[in-house]
Amino acid sequence: MTVVTINQPFWIKQAVFKNRLVKSAMSEAMADKNHLPTDKLCTLYEAWAKGGSGLVITGNVMVDAKALGEPGNVVLDSADHLAEFQTWAEAGTKHNTQLWMQINHPGKQVIKGVAEEAVAPSAVPFEPALQRFFPMCRALEESEILEIIRKFARTAELAKQAGFTGIQIHAAHGYLISQFLSPRHNERTDQWGGPIENRFRFLREIYTAAREKTGPDFPIGVKINSSDFMKAGFSEEESRYVIGELDRLGVDLIEISGGTYERPEMTGKGVRASTAEREAYFLEYAEALKQHADVPLIVTGGFRTLHGMNEALQKHATDFIGLARPLAVYPDYANQLLLGRASDFSIKSIKTGIGFIDSKGILELTWYAQQLHRLGSGGRTKPSFSPLLSLGLTVWKNGKGVLEQRRA
Ligand SMILES: Cc1cc2nc3c(=O)[nH]c(=O)nc-3n(C[C@H](O)[C@H](O)[C@H](O)COP(=O)(O)O)c2cc1C
């Protein structure tokens, strides 16, 4: 039997991935006031390209300037400033790195004050505990749905023109596409709601339109939830159906994650203790999926040891290993893993001891984002950075409202 390890290359169409490690999307919040990529962002991606991953996926880039998810989001919705995106693509593709742009629309997951309004498939509010952070959303008209599909396709086309070697459509984590897929958030009675075949239509149309604009050879991936872990939400069975259809349509790579703002399972919160103890939260789901779907997979969330990564590849539960937080703290971690020199990464809890702050889990995101900003400024990360200092710095720079303005 062939031994598969993280060091082996992989091919998708004409694209060569020099190994099986993927830097998963992390929202950088580093755009300038016009939502364009900055020098800081390019420095960060140069560090990741040097860091050894075969594939680097950008943090979510918004397809519409009127639909931002959080402050500092990059937006790519016109060709007016393609040069800034070309510079970003050049930085991130150094060292034969594949660089894919993750493209997204937040739907109702818009932090209060960031955009004028929030839209969704249906006007379904957040759970009461989250309602004060998000404006109430309104349901999209059909003409608006068609316009958003066109915007996704346009961003895909522009990403290709700028030199990104692929795109990833963000259909996970409770954003707009994920809201369409979920029966809990999508109560529509027209062709966009109801049975899963209809709830899938929005994603299917986005993929088809992006494919038309980018041609048959351009790699297109989709990040999707194994489930959203909510009562009456998007289930594993529905996720399997959607992935099967995407496979049939010709999607090149699926990344498996899980959860939403209301259930942040993507970072391991709320997963069963037995799952949290095992490496990689969604591996069991992926392993079962592999029996039915041929499309290549990335599994992301919780990978921390070289042994765990190689074992997952060896048992064909996944084709790629997705890593986010380890690469925020150690941008060179992929190289160290490939050389067999990396220590196991342990995610320490980012906690201040202040109950109401820690319970939100938002500081964790700002702590990691601060590490990204250190890298973007050309500095080194600070793995020992105190959560309390991180909190102080955040509040000093942005006011206390900022703790309500981060999301994964
Ligand atoms: C600061 C931060 C920002 C994130 N932003 C995004 C994002 O823009 N898009 C996305 O799909 N996932 C995002 N994620 C989730 C990660 O891609 C990944 O799914 C999650 O962190 C689990 O992987 P890990 O255990 O290796 O960190 C973010 C995570 C963090 C920590």
TrEMBL record:
The protein's UniProt keywords, in alphabetical order, are: Flavoprotein, Oxidoreductase
Record keyword Metal-binding present: no
Q: Which GO terms describe its molecular function?
A: FMN binding; oxidoreductase activity
* Residue stretches making up the NADH:flavin oxidoreductase/NADH oxidase N-terminal domain: 8-341
Q: Does Flavoprotein show up as a keyword for this record?
A: yes
Pfam families assigned? Oxidored_FMN (PF00724)
Write down what this protein is called. 2,4-dienoyl-CoA reductase-like NADH-dependent reductase (Old Yellow Enzyme family)
Highest classification ranks of the organism: Bacteria, Bacillati, Bacillota, Bacilli, Bacillales
